Request: fold
Amino acid sequence: MIKKKQKYTVSAPGSLMLFGEHAVLHGKPALVSAIDKRITVELLTRDDDEINLHSTLSGTQSLQLQDIAPDLWRSLPKWHFVLASITFYQKHLPSGFDLKVTADYDAPIGLGSSAAVTVATLAALTLWLDKKGLMQQSLLRHTVQVIREVQGIASGADAAASVYGGVIAYHMPTLKVTKLANTYPLTVIYSGQKIATQSVLEHVSTLQQRHDQVFAHLYAAIAACTHEAKQAWQISDWQAVGELMNIHQGLHDALGVNTQKLVDLIFALRSDPKIFGAKISGAGMGDCVIGLGKADIKELIETISAKNSQAQLIPVQISSQGVAVIEN
Amino acid sequence: MIKKKQKYTVSAPGSLMLFGEHAVLHGKPALVSAIDKRITVELLTRDDDEINLHSTLSGTQSLQLQDIAPDLWRSLPKWHFVLASITFYQKHLPSGFDLKVTADYDAPIGLGSSAAVTVATLAALTLWLDKKGLMQQSLLRHTVQVIREVQGIASGADAAASVYGGVIAYHMPTLKVTKLANTYPLTVIYSGQKIATQSVLEHVSTLQQRHDQVFAHLYAAIAACTHEAKQAWQISDWQAVGELMNIHQGLHDALGVNTQKLVDLIFALRSDPKIFGAKISGAGMGDCVIGLGKADIKELIETISAKNSQAQLIPVQISSQGVAVIEN
Reply:
């Protein structure tokens, strides 16, 4: 019997942290947004045991079905999340397959690409192997499990935005997701500084161990900020959201993850009258800063390029679309 | 009968806020240091009713004993604190006097000059009029009363350091002062930005009214920072004190009182390996930043002058001497 080749195409959005970074790992709420940059995974089943991986981010890799084993992902750093996702379904794989990953954007800039590729890969595999179809909450649970296997510590906030789309409130201990209505333009700048989230978390953890009482207060303050921002977001009080972003930025700074480059970009954003507030997005010490509002791009580019030749404006916006099945 | 002229000379140190700014106004603790820049007040009694004021900061002013009345200080801005101090003793003044104020430093740079001149003026008047002599705690109480009459809101933390000298922990509601042992070099830079403390407080108050829950957490975090810093200071754990200064700086930023100029100076200080930590000193939005440790001055001047031509290093250090009677 010749089996018909099956094709599953799924895309998942990248994401931007808006509120609650670091504190989310201590059980506090976070606000995260899906963005209009997506990662698409195309899974084509094969009649043999070959697994061919191709990615616009990581190149090409071939292996055999029998190679799939726990910890295989450790030996192929560029394929961490894809391989850990495949391993998640190891016992259920009936044959090999071709898997093609296409990203709308460059991974080094961050924007939750690891979570997005994990969501899309797991979703494609789920469509193939688990005929019950995609359930958002179990997809999120599996994604967080896979990301934690690779990264150790991970909040899953980015994965939650990739799965659900739009702006969401997220609570790590329960994986609870609340979708928020409303959207607003963002201005996003990549700092030119790339740093692994894990090393930022280690840096924060070291400081926290020396000042645990103070850090408990910082996380409580971030939680209060996030809670207020959620309420303000839902009533479109953008001035309040912007002010809370500015406050949150100070708390990021207090956690020890601010840099001269990031702060220069943040003050540049704040100098634009259309920007309500600005902060680091994500763990800090590099990656992106975000401003709430649509800045005067020409003027902003002049301001930032005078201080940081590596900084670049990233044309991304909030997107309501979460993980999406394109072909099934 | 010809009365012998009496002369009373008192000096009081300026001060630098180390920890607890803003939160101190909400009943949280502060750490403040007296510095080795002082204001000296020389009071020479007269046989007539003339009051002649002379100050290296404010020039010259003459008035009559009968001119002294509540609110007189309002009409002579340059003499606010001196006149409010004299009015404090209005009913007890038996004659006129010459009063000469000499400052070791330029008042615009801040450094608690208003509190120091009030402490020294009240102390000189007390020596003359209240034969019981100087009691530190009542001098502090009177000073805070006079400063509040002029300024409205005032923590009195700077006055407490001027009275007691050295590094002190201060609690506004009770005016309680605890002297801390130990000292360490500071590096102090004036930002070139001058802003009245009152307008900074108004700015913070406006933001606080819109985000009172978040601000309660910020003040609690500042209090935790100050509490830990007090303990670290007493065991000479300068690394911990420096880290807590960095954390406090983030909280200053969260309160909305940071500026690009201040943050540039702070990152310049932190780039020096001998600096354990750096932060705004005082209300913020201008005035001074402090680093814990003795920076490489030559290199620091090069770094900061490239970014801010108005910034200047202020050669001040912690001083253990509080208010002091020089001539009685």
